[in-house]
Amino acid sequence: MTKTADDVPTAVWHTDETGLVTVEAPPEWWRKWGQDPNWPQYAEMFAQAGEKARSDEVCGAMGRTTHRPCRHNTRIHGPCPHHCDAPLRYHCATPRKKGGWCRWDLRKGRCDHHPDSHDAYMVAVRADEEEELRQQAVREQEARKTAEERRRRTLRVACPFCDAPSDQDCVQRNGVQRPKLHGVRKKLWLHTEAASTAACSYCEAAVGELCRTSSGKAADQAHAGR
Length: 226
Known about the structure:
Blueprint lengths: L11 E4 L5 E4 L2 H8 L4 H15 L20 H4 L38 H39 L28 H13 L31
Antiparallel strand pairs: 1-2
């Protein structure tokens, strides 16, 4: 007969994401059930529960000093710095005489045993920072080009708010031109762009015609699905 959790009296047991099974029971419980003929079934039940609870997102390596599975979440924090198979970019990584490599975190400063490794790490960090600045400058330049192109195309339509004609900037109430185009003009341009490519199935506006409201007036925006 298969054993279940209800068959384990006077004992509290639970599992965690590392697959570790913890049984909390008094000494009398261990003396009794450790010698029970059905103990192998209980042990198998605990083992299956631990395997079922084990998550692939945690490191799970058994600690040499703690003798408990490592709880480092690799999905959130990346490879475990203590049990990874290869050095991470911030490890000292100097080979050791007894095997393996130095796992000192260079983000904390120089390694007392291998100070030269910190210089190489800082060179790599500066290179990464320079590359990030270069990519940021490229992104900003592309954003400016996109904004300029959107503005140039918006100027193709007249502004319904200030009556500025096409190819001219919007104007303020005092007649002075303003560098920022009115929002309704931007909506009208988007509406015109949508109308130039497809007909509207809602108001039956043909290709090239703006969508219209139920009263027959031109809508501020294209209907959904156009």
